[in-house]
Design brief:
single chain, alpha/beta, Rossmann fold, 3 domains, six-stranded parallel β-sheet, 59% helix, NADH_DH_b, transmembrane helix, NADP binding, cell inner membrane
């Protein structure tokens, strides 16, 4: 091994170390930004080392370099533009789209190398053939499934579970095609047409497996698809003999798998039950979670301001309504105003609030909310019982007491015990239900007051009303 090869491997090792350290730093909102930066530096170093290695090998033609330069320019430009312009409310669909690109790219690597080996007399070695089959199969599923998830988040595809007729039989047939095709490819008796059949079946399976999943479960499925992309990238690394891809893909696959399990546990639902689909929607009329004739008590900004300003403890519960209204700065302004009056203010964060893991944490951090004020669910529930006012902003399913009642879509799901607070103030645009398709009996609780308005407008009105009060 030459000194040059050793240097490249050392750069790869340093990049892999950056990935591990960056992933560790992302465990906490306080260090997550630094972790992202460390990981980005590692990736930049790995890309630079790979380009230098390609130059030294002399195997890349001028046309290849032109295509490579165009790809880097387009990819970097698209990434920079989307990072700057896409609002936080659209981040789940952007994550899904990026995940689809990763899975599709990994599958293309496998397809390219299979055709290259197929042109040789001996064909692909058994180990490479296994990696190619896994790469193409998993990458194609991640690609099509992530595109469906993106469409559901964006509203291009209905968020409700879509159950195609005879989907079980169709899925079994697609799996049979994939298994038989993989066998033919591994024994060396299958050609390009067999690989094409495997790719087509995997793409169809990704679509049919994601369509039945409702909006309430979609963040879990996106996390699982992200893990699939990581595995596909690792397989692509085995195919082309690149250790950096193997390490990076392995880390993404492992972390995505762990996150999937944690999110499923937070909803008290098995991953298999989530993949089976069939519940969770934001598109159709909901099922009443409490008495249908119970009274809803609305309030005004002035009355709500008095309730908040003269409380000893206030717990703010953010949800997707806060993100949709881009009201994170307004809620921080209100919290700081209340704190200046001697009110103890905290934020109760449910693990699956919003549409992606950490959605609320990122929003609040963007508005400079102190990290120590963000309470995870267990800590928040301990404090809610001694809280004077719980201010719920657009959160529905994660505060729904119907989760404690057997026999409905969210039965058993851990929730924020908002109804244990002394008083509840809910900011919503309407009485609409959440993604699980259930009405929330919290809204008809005698100690709950509803403030019907867009979150941004409501919080601005509440802040203005609190400022007029005498201490």
């Amino acid at each position: 091994m030459s000194a040059f090869d050793i240097a490249v491997r050392l750069v790869y090792l340093a990049a892999a170390t950056c990935f591990v350290v960056g992933l560790h730093l992302m465990n906490s909102p306080v260090t997550a930004k630094r972790g992202n930066l460390v990981s980005a530096v590692g990736m930049a170093a790995a890309i630079a080392a790979t380009l230098v290695l390609a130059i030294a090998s002399g195997t890349v033609t001028w046309l290849g370099w032109l295509v490579l330069a165009a790809g880097i320019a387009v990819g970097a430009g698209a990434g920079l533009l989307s990072a700057r312009r896409v609002p936080m409310t659209a981040m789940p669909q952007l994550v899904s789209l990026f995940n689809a690109v990763g899975g599709g790219a990994a599958a293309l690597v496998g397809i390219h190398d299979f055709t290259r080996f197929a042109a040789t007399p001996d064909g692909a070695p058994a180990a490479i053939a296994v990696a190619v089959v896994l790469d193409v199969f998993i990458g194609a599923i991640a690609f099509s499934g992530s595109l469906v998830a993106c469409g559901k988040f964006q509203g291009w595809i209905p968020g409700r579970p879509i159950l195609p007729p005879a989907r079980g039989a169709v899925n079994a047939l697609l799996l049979l095609v994939i298994v038989l095709g993989a066998w033919f490819l591994l024994v060396g008796s299958g050609g390009t047409w067999v690989l094409t059949a495997v790719v087509a079946a995997a793409l169809a399976l990704g679509v049919l497996a994601t369509l039945p999943v409702g909006g309430a479960d979609m963040p879990v499925v996106v996390s699982l698809l992200n893990a699939c992309t990581g595995i596909a990238v690792a397989m692509a690394g085995f195919v082309i003999g690149n250790s950096m891809l193997i390490i990076a893909g392995g880390l993404v696959g492992a972390s995505g798998g762990i996150l999937t399990k944690l999110m499923a546990d937070a909803m008290n639902r098995p991953v298999t039950g989530i993949l089976a689909g069939g519940y969770g929607t934001g598109d159709t009329p909901g099922v009443t979670g409490g008495p249908g004739d119970a009274q809803v008590r609305s309030t005004t900004a002035d009355d709500a301001a008095i309730q908040l300003a003269y409380a000893s403890r206030v717990m703010i519960v953010p949800g997707y309504g806060l993100a949709a209204a881009q009201a994170q700065h307004e809620v921080n302004e209100l919290a700081e105003l209340l704190a200046s009056r001697g009110v103890v203010v905290g934020y109760a964060i449910h693990p699956v609030a919003g549409r992606m893991p950490g959605h609320m944490n990122v929003l609040l951090a963007e508005a400079k909310v102190p990290y120590e004020h963000m309470k995870e669910m267990e800590e928040a529930n301990r404090e809610l019982a001694r809280t004077d006012v719980a201010l719920v902003i657009g959160a529905n399913d994660v505060t729904n007491p119907a989760a404690r009642v057997p026999g409905n879509a969210i039965s058993g799901m851990p929730i924020l015990d908002v109804d244990q607070a002394g008083g509840v103030l809910v900011v919503k645009r309407s009485m609409g239900h959440g993604y699980a398709g259930l009405d929330n009996p919290l809204y008809t609780d005698p100690k709950t007051r509803m403030y019907f308005a867009d979150a941004k407008t409501a919080l601005a009105d509440l802040t203005a009303a609190v400022k007029t009060l005498v201490r």
